[in-house]
Amino acid sequence: MGIGAVALAWLSAQQSANAVPAKLPKEVTYFDLKPKPPHFAPRAKAMISLFQHGGPSHVDLFDPKPELSRLSGSEYPGEVQFSFINRATKTLFGSPWQFAKRGRCGTEISELLPNLADIVDDVCLVRSMHTGANGHEVSIRYFHGGIPGVVGRPTLGSWLVYGLGCESQELPAYLVLTDPGGLPVDGVSNWSNGFMPPLFQGTVLRPKEPRILNLEPPLHVRGAVQEQNLAFLRDLNRRHLDEHPGEADLEARIASYELAAAMQTAAIEALDISRETAATHALYGLDDPATREYGTRCLIARRLVERGVRFVQLFLAGQPWDNHSDIRNGLPAICRRTDKPAAALVKDLKQRGMLDSTVVHWGGEIGRLPVTENHGDSAKSGRDHNGQGFSMWVAGGGFQPGMTYGGTDEFGHRAVTDVVTPNDFQATLLHLFGLDHRQLSYLHSGREQQITAGREARLIGEIIEG
Amino acid sequence: MRPWPRFLSLAMTIAVALRASHGAAVEPNAPPTFESDIRPILRVHCFDCHGGSEEKQGGLDLRLVRFQRAGGDSGPVLAPGDPDGSRLLARIRAGEMPPGESKVPAKEIDTIARWIAAGAKTARPEPASIAPGLGITEEERSWWAFRPIQRPAVSSQSPDPRVRTPIDALLREAMPEGPTFSPDADRRTLVRRVYFDLLGLPPSPEEVEQFVVDRSDDAYERLVDRLLASPHYGERWARHWLDAAGYADSDGATTQDAVRTWAFKYRDYVIRAFNADKPFDRFVHEQLAGDELAGPITGDLTPEQIELLTATGFVRMAADGTASGDNTPEARNQVVADTLKIVTSSLLGVTVACAQCHDHRYDPVPQTDYYALRAVFEPALDWQAWKSPAERHVSLYTAADREKAAQIEAEARKIATARANMQTAYMAEALEQVLAPIAPPLQTELRDAYETPADKRTDAQKQLLEKYPSVNISPGVLYQYDQAAADDLKKYDERIAAIRARKPVEEFLRALIEPADHAPETKLFHRGDYRQPKQSVGPGALSVCGPESGRVEFASRNGALPTTGRRLAFARWLTGPDNPLTARVVANRVWMHHFGRGLVSTPADFGRLGTLPTHPAVLDWLASDLRDSGWSLKHLHRAILLSTAYRQSSRRDPAQTTVDADNRYYGRQNVLRLDAEALRDRVLAATGTLDRTLFGPPIGVKEDDAGQVVVAGDVQRRSLYLLQRRTQPVALMQAFDAPVMQTNCEARPSSTVATQSLMLMNGEFWLSQAAALANRAQRERAAGLSAELLAGLPQSWKPAPVWQFGYGGCDASSGRTASFTPLAHWTGSSWQGGAALPDDATGWVLVDADGGHPGNNPGFAAIRRWTAPADGTLSVRGTLGHASESGDGVRGHIVAGSQGIVGQWTARHGEAQTSVENIAVKQGDTVDFIADCLENVASDSFSWRVVLTLAQDGGGTTTFDSRDGFHGPVSEGIELSSVVRAWQLAYARIPTRDELQAACDFLTKQIGHLRERPQQTSADRPPEMQALANLCQALLSSNEFLYVD
Fold first, then answer.
1. A128 with A224, same domain?
2. Same domain for A317 and A185?
3. Does B152 contact A at CB distance below 8 Å?
4. Nearest to A88 by CA among A410, A390, A375, A409
5. Is the CB of A24 less than 8 angstroms away from the CB of B650?
6. Whether A221 and A343 share a structural domain
7. What are the beta bridge partners of residue B711?
8. CB contacts, 8 Å: B995 with chain A
């Protein structure tokens, strides 16, 4: 019998003016990462998000615009939402790259992404993303935290592990794989736990040793020495617990040492990609200097999800997709680095039978404008920010494979059909995880908070596999 | 029956008992009324469009029942008695209303249906007219938190002898039949608890003993008084307040997160205020309106003015990006909004932020109230006349300081002028020396070229100077021509710097100072958007706390002050008799820190979305006691700490636990984990490295090699003083739930996660603290221990070095080592008989890392001794070398303790391989490597590096390299009394016999283990000390250390 019922029973017997009120505080003071049942049967159990900071140029990669190509060099007829007005032009800039229909589904993909073209039948491409804001941080925070521009909110991964816990108790539930070149734009806010306890913060898997901080003991306490230390600690704690019977927090603390010891072994094993076959290494491009780094992280992401991690997110340093200038060289370079590993991840999950239950997400916070940001030299031209319309793709976990959804105007500036906001995306994602975004709430400052923050959020049934 | 202690009897006033009346508490079977049950639902879901604002959708106003019956453009929406005929219900049921995602929950729809079915009753006749907006109903006004504070009646006699104080009496009264308070905690537990609660620091073992043996009646009261008088009390309780105030040492808001160099002045003010027990009402006035209290500033700031201006740092705590590239109207308005949030959540316990855009949906806070509060701050925090962060700095320079600084500068300038003259002279001298050897016409041309300013030189002059580069003398290269001159100029520079260093140090405050005669109009922002200003709103407080006729309004100008006086009026209202919230909020926070949970568990929200007080009478008793005592927090602490409720044991009584697992009735104390600051401070106190200095600039932080934010430098101040940079939280602090400030922190969670454990197991800080504790324990050792405690246990663990270095001889007839005497003198690189060679007693004998030198005859051979740490089979590889071209060489023997001589070699002007296989050894067996001089000791330096491989009987192979294993003097080992001391330092108690036995077993086992693993130990970390450090790490990571019971 819970305390609430007991208290109510007492209350009815109490006539005192100083009675304990009927409404006992509803507060959760204890949090853990044990697996928790979703609201309804889930399609997805884990997610790997390949976040692409800077704003990948959808009109050059995902969203072919014949009209833009036809009118390239002429003036854009409508109004443009620029970010950098000082460098702005209204000269239309047709994509220098060719698109072609790919796969059985015939989705048109740019020649810059030959590997994506290979897996396009497994991918759901959304061409009508919209944040309404051009700024990087504003839109990044919208994607992660649910409100444009607002910092200090829990990120998507925090919500998932808060709601569902983690299948593995030996690995962190929410892992972030950062780039050796440094942090992405907006830094650690990208994996903030916001107002939730630090338990729900993304754990950074560093690009160099030590991969997880404090995971490995220094040499002098390694191995049997640490086992002896922990055994002695356990003995101390057991004696203490005997003096404090029934204190759940003390028991949880004892268990957390056992878990920590198990994590040391489990994490080292999970990160050891030498256990993978040569074929797998080749699949992810580990044999090519251009793809080795990102491929390694994609492969590690798969190994983590395979071992029960709930949410893994990869970031690039800074914002390599922010091609304001010299897009003709800048865009192919970052495509070369990421295209093969990202496609390999989908292929690999599929061949292992994991794709059905794992969402792979590929996307940035904004897209780019159809007009040129002409630095006085057409060879150096680039594109300015565009939060009005852009593309991203998802695969697996219950998303409809081999489809495109939504669309932008004939130039690719604004999303016009089946517009999808980050809140819509969050609501749909949580749905695939068996969670109702309105019900998954966290009590903060006396208010029930949700990832979609009470904002309008549409569950996009059309992109869910039937 | 037992009378109250005398000191409390004064506090017993008869008062009307507070009825536990709440808006939400409804008699289960009473028929619903509009005011109590329906209006709150409509307020959340409907009033935004139908009544709350001027514009009413479909002409429908739902604020009164008769408006509902009258209906809107499409006719009536309510038919009393007929739920199915009421469109109000139908549209909600159909999910058509409200539009959008948010729907009315089924339970509430059911309430509406029941209400209509029962005739759509109101609690009382509806008013004839109604003002625009939502207004405040009688029900809302009678919400528990807005009712006046009423001191509950407390009977001065209780049938329960466990009742010591009024708090106990009120708690006891609320307890169900059966259980009462637990017995008092034992004295050791109690003294620890009070220390951590009041100081955030552990008692020393001596302080614990002092209290334990003090059997006087008032020992506990005196302890409490002593701790309340400690300067560390202010540090502990300042930290609690700084959470609520959102203290940070940086600007936040943008990625730049500039450091606020002078924020610490406010932190120090808070510490001083708590230590002085500054009346809390005065504390509030100073923080909100110190500038208005300070009076006109003419000339130097007085100490009082400095104090008052420092206090206003409170309203400068909000994150603020306006100095780091985001000086937009949005950013400025965000600072204002955050400041209001800090003020209201810390002092009012009402969340007003929702009312920025619309009337609060749950609590009676109309949007106009929000802007009335904003109007209080607007003259000082005017987003349209924004003061940049740099402009808010107030210099603490006095006129005298300024004058002195100017004098000193003038003095410095004099020297600087003299220096400039000297430099010119030196350079001219150098030029002449360079020009001297050059013949006259060219000499003159070069001089002219040099003396012509660079931009006026002709091409010919430039070429000339290029041709003679050495003529290009500049101040920077003067030293190359005349070192003495350069040195002389440097002396001038030093003198100038020394003079300037005498200037008084200029310090600053971060203050909020309202400009004189500045009263901008405050506009209500439609939907919170500053671009949509609506009507003007005057300064005021919450309407719900005001008279029924309207809100609490403050004068827009105060004729007696140069400023508007609005904040001062607001501050005085907060702590005045008409506002019941602030005293309750403060009392609740104090309770929360003593019991781990507030009587209201949402300390910043006393509204409908918060939780109700578990003990409203206790809360009101505390709040009125706080007020009546002249807002003395120390008085309040005393009232709480002397209660049985506080002093009782935390041990769960199984019978009681089953009925009150969460301890809602306070039938025991709570076991609480130390917060981050107390934990770090405790470990530093245990190791004796804590620097208890008060006040001052923050201690810096840095990223370590692994990228973790750690404390920079070796100064180990209390955690309160660590730099609180929003983007650089110290990893240890953050892991143990210290807030990373966004706005402010209302209450900290207490998490239990594996990452904390990993930090204590493997983190550099915790491991180094464990080693420090071991060193301290070893240094201090416990004294006066009883014989029973120690009897039968190992009294010490002496080192058993694997390698020893000595001299002696090999007895060829017995095949044994005839004698082994350790060499007594360590030179830093070798062992020998004395400081000088040859030594009077031992001659030339020495042993070093690679070999050594034998003594004068075979009885003084150099011996390198290895001792087997385990049973096994040993093989030896090595090379005995004699490099000299002279002498008769050296002879080497290997003597294995159990088997005798297992090998013999001679090396003369060359090398001999000294390999032996399959030597069976038992643990403790010695193997000696004996080198003697043969006949002649001359030129007998030898090298003999051996590598031993021990295949252990138990499995595993260990390699011992004589060069790696060579070492100087070893530690003395560890003592049992050191182990006991470690216990005292960590836990402030000695171990039980069982615990000590377990510790001995651990040490013996681990020392043995480490001796077999030389790669895990080192000369400065021999096995015995390493094992003791590991034992200390367990102590510092244990629940007894992390929790207070």
1. no
2. yes
3. yes
4. A375
5. no
6. no
7. B701
8. 236, 239
Interface check for A40 against chain B (CB to CB < 8 A): the answer is no
pLDDT in tens, B85-122: 888 888 888 888 887 666 788 888 888 888 888 888 88
Backbone dihedral region for residue A402 (phi beyond 0: left; psi -120 to 50: alpha; all else: beta): left
pLDDT at position A376 is 65
Predicted local confidence at residue B72, as pLDDT: 83
Structure-block tokens of residue B404: 């002195």
Query: At CA B990, angle to CA B985 and CA B992, rounded to 5?
Result: 140
Cα separation, B1040 vs B982, whole angstroms: 14
Going from the C-alpha of B660 to that of each of B247, B377, B550, B766, the distances in angstroms are: 37, 46, 44, 37
Decide which of A246, A270, A294 is a domain's last residue. A270
Beta bridge partners of B710: B702
Domain boundary among A203, A237, A270: A270
Query: Among partner residues B20, B756, B1026, which is closest to A17 by beta-carbon distance?
Result: B20
Give, in words, the CATH class of B801-965.
Answer: mainly beta
Pairing outcome for strands A174-177 and A311-314? parallel
Rg (CA), chain B: 41
- Give me the amino acid identity at A155: T
| Candidates A21, A232, A241; nearest CB to B1034 | A232
Identify whether residues A219 and A205 lie together within a single domain: no
- Domain count of chain A? 2
DSSP class of residue B1021? Answer: B
For A320, the domain range is 3-211+275-463
The reply to whether A248 and A292 lie within a common domain is: no
A252 and A303, same structural domain?
Answer: no
Residues of chain A falling short of pLDDT 50: 1-29
Chain A hits for B22, CB-CB cut-off 8 Å, are 21, 23
3-state helix, strand, coil in chain B (%, to 5): 45, 15, 45
Give pLDDT tens digits for B397-416.
Answer: 999 999 999 999 999 999 99
Q: What number of H helices and E strands is found in chain B?
A: 37, 27
Task: Check if the beta carbon of residue B537 is closer than 8 Å to that of residue B373.
Answer: no
A187/B255 touch (CB, cutoff 8 Å), yes or no: yes
pLDDT at position B858: 82
Whether residue A150 lies within 8 A of chain B, CB to CB, comes out as no
Q: Give the integer Cα–Cα distance in Å for B1041 and B984.
A: 12
Residues of chain B with Cβ-Cβ distance to A257 below 8 Å are: 754, 757, 761, 1037
Q: Give the closest of A23, A240, A264 to B612, CB-based.
A: A23
Q: A250, B1043: Cβ pair inside 8 Å? A: yes
Tell whether pTM > 0.95.
Answer: no
Residue-wise pLDDT tens digits, B848-868? 999 999 998 888 999 999 999
pLDDT at A22: 29
Residues A94, A219, single domain; the answer is no
Dihedral sign for Cα atoms in the order A66, A72, A75, A80: positive
- Listed residue (B489, B488, B258, B520) closest to B378, CA to CA: B520
Q: What is the pLDDT of residues B137-183, one digit of tens each?
A: 777 888 899 999 999 998 878 888 899 999 999 999 888 877 789 99
**B728-771 pLDDT per residue, tens:** 889 899 888 898 888 888 888 777 777 889 999 999 999 999 99
In terms of domains, do A120 and A228 share one?
A: no
CATH of the domain at A356: 3.40.720.10
Is the pLDDT assigned to residue B364 strictly greater than 70? yes
pLDDT digits 0-9 by tens, B765-791: 999 999 999 999 999 998 888 888 998
pLDDT at residue B357 in the model: 77
Mean pLDDT lowest for which of A175-189, B195-209, B623-637? Answer: A175-189
H helices within B839-969, ranges in order? Answer: 962-965
Beta-carbon contacts below 8 Å between A and B = 245
